[in-house]
């Protein structure tokens, strides 16, 4: 296994618990952070409980969050969740904490985890991957032979490059980027206020507040991605935007920053070919969608577990193993492509559109409708059931009747929705025929002509070196408020 975070450790746990020998190599040491915010919904809470990781996580002081307040277009919608296996709360654990807990549970399950050890190459035998080459922190190199190599090594996956799958066969641009920082939560650890997540949309930008462990919180803006650099230039810009969110400002009043600003301006969405002879890619290594729906961690854990379970049974028979890996991949795509399209919808950066406004209005005083929204975000209700045709017709009609909306905007809205549905159904139809998703956007990615993903080999795809723009690194720079030097972390209040 390459990578020990939210995708790697769950796969390792399932394999080890089924009596398989698992070695996990990770170039990081744990506990450690990674560039990610970390809102999770009850579906993940239930997964963590099944892994035995929920109790240790809650013991770190990670608050339970059963409530959400969303305000789009000036309308407050309060929601709670339909419980999943009895768990009705989400959370926002720092990755240092969450990933550290998962690594501990994997070790307890019997997996051998080697930190600060980088995988540098693959061993091939008769067309199958049969091991990895590595280099550890002392500079020692070595090779480990195995029946299966799982790449759980993130967006810049080394394993994907080495098997010729680095270029996604399906790629879509996200409209939003992320700028965030950690602050002290002004409310005490056990207060009611820390059991709620907040999201406000003003114009084209989402502003959010998520209480985390250690009595802290993350303050996050998701503006159009072209604005990310402007945002991150200095705290003056950050505070300028904060001033447009009076409720957010009020919520964090007095909370001093704990970290520098972090940003990500180009986390595009994709599917990579994720299985082949003796190898599989799980988590971000194989698939990524816009963080606006906060599902990457859940999918890493969920499909990590499913991969571990499927592989453990099939490991001794190469033909059965490859079939099991392909079935696992199609299963992932069948479910994830629905969220993929949902995320692309929410990644669009226009201000609240007429049909959206009708959805929020319909949910404002109707707890059942609000619950449906919660469940669509939380993954217990398909977004397609939320955005069903009868409701779409009603919301469109209301949009046309609302004199404040332009008919052209309403029409544009409904046309966009129908074409998204058409794309989604085309993808689902292809998966139901036992094929990978419809390839798309090769040209945008610098490819030549579309090659069916089944026929892709390392010869077709010259592994492309990851570029800085592929994923803005953790800039990690406290942006300077003046040209004269770094200011010691000012409180947001002071700086505003
Ligand atoms: C800005 C941002 C915000 C996000 N917010 C959310 C959110 O709120 N909620 C949510 O659910 N998801 C969110 N996501 C998505 C989520 O972060 C990812 O889906 C998740 O981190 C994927 O986990 P992973 O285990 O696949 O990969 P990673 O977390 O990237 O871990 C990969 C591991 O592989 C190791 N590795 C890499 N190469 C090698 C090598 N050659 N040898 C050995 N080890 C190697 C790395 O050291 C690392 O530890 C966000 C993503 C971004 C970019």
TrEMBL record:
Region listing for Disordered, in residue ranges: 446-496
Domain FAD-binding stretches: 2-316
Signal sequence segment: none
Any one Pfam family match given in the protein's UniProt record, by short name: FAD_binding_3
Gene3D superfamilies named among the record's database cross-references: 3.30.9.100, FAD/NAD(P)-binding domain
Protein name according to UniProt: NAD(P)/FAD-dependent oxidoreductase
Organism, as annotated: Sporichthya brevicatena
Record lineage: Bacteria, Bacillati, Actinomycetota, Actinomycetes, Sporichthyales
């Amino acid at each position: 296994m390459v990578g020990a975070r939210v995708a790697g450790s769950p796969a390792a746990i399932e394999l080890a618990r089924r009596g398989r020998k698992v070695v996990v190599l990770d170039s990081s040491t744990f506990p450690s952070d990674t560039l990610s915010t970390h809102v999770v919904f009850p579906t993940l809470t239930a997964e963590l409980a099944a892994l035995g990781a929920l109790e240790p996580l809650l013991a770190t002081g990670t608050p339970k969050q059963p409530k959400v307040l969303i305000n789009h277009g000036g309308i407050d919608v309060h929601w709670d969740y339909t419980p999943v296996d009895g768990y009705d709360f989400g959370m926002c654990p720092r990755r240092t904490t969450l990933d550290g807990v998962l690594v501990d549970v994997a070790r307890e399950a019997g997996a051998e985890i080697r930190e600060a050890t980088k995988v540098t190459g693959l061993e091939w035998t008769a067309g199958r991957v049969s091991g990895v080459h590595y280099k550890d922190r002392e500079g020692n190199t070595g090779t480990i032979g195995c029946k299966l190599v799982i790449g759980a090594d993130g967006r810049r996956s080394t394993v994907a490059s080495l098997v010729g799958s680095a270029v996604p066969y399906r790629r879509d641009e996200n409209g939003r980027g992320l700028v965030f920082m950690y602050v002290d939560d002004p409310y005490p650890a056990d207060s009611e206020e820390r059991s709620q997540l907040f999201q406000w949309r003003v114009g084209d930008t989402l502003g959010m507040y998520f209480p985390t462990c250690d009595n802290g919180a993350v303050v996050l803006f998701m503006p159009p991605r072209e604005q990310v650099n402007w945002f991150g230039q200095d705290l003056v810009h950050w505070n300028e935007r904060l001033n447009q969110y009076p409720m957010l400002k009020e919520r964090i009043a007095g909370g001093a920053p704990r970290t520098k600003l972090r940003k990500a301006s180009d986390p595009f969405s994709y599917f990579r070919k994720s299985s082949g002879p003796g190898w599989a890619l799980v988590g971000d290594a194989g698939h990524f969608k816009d963080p606006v729906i906060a599902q990457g961690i859940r999918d890493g854990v969920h499909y990590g577990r499913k991969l571990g379970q499927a592989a453990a049974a099939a490991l001794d028979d190469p033909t059965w193993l490859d079939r099991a890996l392909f079935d696992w991949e199609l299963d992932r795509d069948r479910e994830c492509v629905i969220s993929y399209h949902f995320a692309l919808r929410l990644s669009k950066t226009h201000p609240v559109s007429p049909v959206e406004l009708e959805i929020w209005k319909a949910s404002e005083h109707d707890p059942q409708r609000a619950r449906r929204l919660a469940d669509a975000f939380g993954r217990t209700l398909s977004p397609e059931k939320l955005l069903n045709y009868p409701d779409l017709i009603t919301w469109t009609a209301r949009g046309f009747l609302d004199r404040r909306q332009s008919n052209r905007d309403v029409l544009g809205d409904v046309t966009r929705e129908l074409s998204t549905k058409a794309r989604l159904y085309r993808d689902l139809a292809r998966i139901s025929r036992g094929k990978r998703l419809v390839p798309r956007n090769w040209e945008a990615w610098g490819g030549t002509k579309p090659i069916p993903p089944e026929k892709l080999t390392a010869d077709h795809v010259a592994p492309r070196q990851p570029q800085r723009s592929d994923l803005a690194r953790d800039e990690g720079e406290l942006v300077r408020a003046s040209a004269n030097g770094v200011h010691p972390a000012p409180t947001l209040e002071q700086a505003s």
